[in-house]
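Worked example

This section walks through a single chain of length 160. The input is the sequence exactly as stored; nothing has been trimmed or padded.
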Amino acid sequence: MTSQDLFAEISIQAEDFSLADEVALLEKDNLTDGAVVTFTGRVRNNNNGNSVTSLTLEHYPGMTEKSLAKIINQAKEQWQIGRVKVIHRIGELHIGEQIVFVGVTSKHRQDAFAANEFIMDYLKVKAPFWKKEQITEAGKTSENWLDAKTGDTDKAELWS
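Given that input, the structure is written out below as tokens.
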């Protein structure tokens, strides 16, 4: 593997993924990059004081992949990174299930950490995903479509 043999892979999928397998793919025959930084997001059991029972994620096929590719290309312009893998799940997910994986390799950890955080921050506010929470509040079950959180938008704007 040379530094010219870079790859970026994007996967939008209903099926779960193996964190160990994804890290192994980032590392396989990669003799130039000393850093591998990953982030995995999971469905938590609470949000805004409500008990979350599940989360449903929808996306706009074609547009989502283009949006993620643009985010990855922006990261490659700002940092010296090697391999990038982004997985985002769709469909109904339950508490504790994995939602998203972002993996970045680089020769040095600073670039890998920064690029990974940038990709995740931009993914949260720029990629066309829609999230619907199923919640239980005071014994009643309901559903909410979620907007991007102000904090996520503010964090993404810091990169500008």
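What to look for: Confidence is low (pLDDT under 50) at residues 1-5.
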